DNA sequence: CACCTGTGCGACGAGATCGTAACAGAGAGG
DNA sequence: CCTCTCTGTTACGATCTCGTCGCACAGGTG
């Protein structure tokens, strides 16, 4: 029931009342809040502190919010930081404008502090989900690389090392077709596109071991194989 | 300026007008859209299809949106799918309620379709890695060249590589007549204008696979074929 | 209407491509 | 030495793809 602990959030507004109010609520949620009051400060602070999120008011003295946003997106250090825009302008035209530029959310004043906190939480939930662990997950398939084990639906699938390399390579980019040459090169180190049935054989063995989940490995004629994150039912039979 | 290719989105609303409208806009963005109209369907479809995002109307007959949402969050298969809530109730109390439960966004009716698309894009941007695909788009037809897949109205059309080359070539210059020689050269590499029925046969197969949309491929006697971006309705029969 | 030319369409066969079973060798372990 | 597992290869059959053919049909012309 709280935001990720120690989330650092940068709030930008020229009205100190607003920043204070937001700071109060966010710090109650366990966030570290940095408040600044003009455009130039934002850019400096964002690049230096690397907050997890920026709450940006559009109406700022000097450099306005749009300009600040564009600058944030051109600096490699701040490019990927989510931005929640805040504005007194509530016309659909303005909201669309903000979202179109790439804002992650747009909230109009006056707003409920509670709603702001919740919207911030929603954004952080999605953007911080990047897993630090050394695991590869696609749907019900979880690869624990450390132990070289594949879990399907919570149950271990007993794969050999070759099969493991094969499915890992495909799972790394699910729903993308990998050509035979690509796979032979990645798993076997073959440079030339040999015409052997080796790859096919291992694909079959994989499908066999996956049982009902075998349809996750798809064939695209003339193109190659791929890991299908959402196999269709009618393809399973 | 486009959503991720092949994003599968589940839209839930009891009013068919709404789902149709949203489907239209999203399929133009290259999304595969699945529309359902009651609560039970949502749970089944979500677990089976694993969409990248769910647009959920709160006012549903039978099981209401809140209950659907809770069920989505308790099923391991659907727990991590982002949800954008849609509702006619615009009170802060309702918005907060939705966000508090863990929705990723909350939009009130009436809404601008453009804003909905943008908000969906914002969520997807954060929840999945962005990949820029080279795609070819004409009207409701979206070609994902990397995966050799054609999406028509958000649904995949299963084409062979020859058919793919053919429609890509015509879509590259829609509403322009391509002579038989031009097409035979581009797709088959034939230099001489042979008098075989090869091209005709493949055109027919394409039209068959496109079903109702077959009228997008037009014939001009003695001149050649072309991709028609806006076929007349009376030609569809 | 008769005629001609160009296109639509079903069927067929050759070849490409993939799935599958069976086999043989390499290596580990007892 | 034997056994077992893993691996790569081969052979064969099933399936899919694609070009061609023959004929039907439509549009234009005289």
Average pLDDT of chain A, to the nearest integer?
83
Helix content of chain A: 25-40%
Q: Approximately how much beta-strand content do the residues of chain A carry? A: 15-25%
Write out the CATH superfamily name of the largest domain in chain A: Response regulator
Radius of gyration of chain A: 24 Å
Instruction: List the helices and strands of chain A in order.
Output: EHEHEHEHEHEEEEHHHEE
Measured by residues with Cβ under 8 Å of the partner chain's Cβ, the largest interface is:
A-B, 34 and 33 residues
Q: Low-confidence parts of chain A, pLDDT < 50 over ≥5 residues? A: none
Structural category of chain A is alpha/beta
Number of strands of chain A: 11
Write down the CATH topology of the largest domain in chain A.
Answer: Rossmann fold
**Oligomer type:** homodimer
Set down the secondary structure blueprint.
Two copies of one chain form a homodimer.
Chain A: E1 8-12, H1 16-28, E2 32-36, H2 39-49, E3 53-57, H3 65-74, E4 83-87, H4 92-101, E5 105-108, H5 113-127, E6 135-138, E7 141-144, E8 149-152, E9 155-157, H6 161-172, H7 180-188, H8 198-210, E10 217-220, E11 224-227
Chain B binds a DNA duplex (30 and 30 nucleotides) through residues 160-162, 188, 196-198, 200-205, 219, 221-222.
């Amino acid at each position: 029931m709280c935001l990720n602990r120690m989330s650092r959030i940068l709030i930008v507004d020229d009205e100190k009342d607003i920043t204070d109010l937001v700071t109060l609520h966010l710090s109650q949620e366990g966030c570290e809040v940095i408040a600044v009051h003009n455009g130039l400060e934002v850019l400096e602070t964002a690049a230096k502190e690397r907050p997890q999120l920026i709450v940006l008011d559009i109406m700022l003295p000097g450099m306005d919010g749009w300009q600040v946003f564009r600058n944030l997106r051109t600096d490699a250090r701040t490019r990927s930081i989510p931005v929640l825009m805040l504005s007194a302008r509530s016309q659909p035209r303005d909201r669309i404008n903000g979202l179109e530029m790439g804002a992650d959310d747009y909230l109009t004043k006056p707003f409920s502090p509670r709603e702001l906190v919740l919207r911030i939480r929603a954004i952080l939930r999605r953007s911080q989900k990047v897993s630090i662990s050394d695991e590869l997950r696609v749907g019900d398939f979880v690869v624990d690389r450390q132990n070289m084990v594949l879990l399907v639906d919570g149950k271990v699938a007993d794969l050999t090392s070759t099969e493991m390399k094969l499915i890992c390579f495909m799972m790394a980019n699910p729903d993308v077709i990998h050509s035979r040459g690509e796979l032979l090169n990645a798993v076997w180190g073959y440079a030339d596109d040999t015409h052997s049935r080796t790859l096919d054989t291992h694909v079959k063995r994989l499908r066999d071991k996956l049982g009902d989940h075998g349809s996750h490995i798809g064939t695209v004629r003339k193109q190659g194989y791929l890991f299908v994150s959402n196999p269709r039912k009618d393809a399973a039979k």
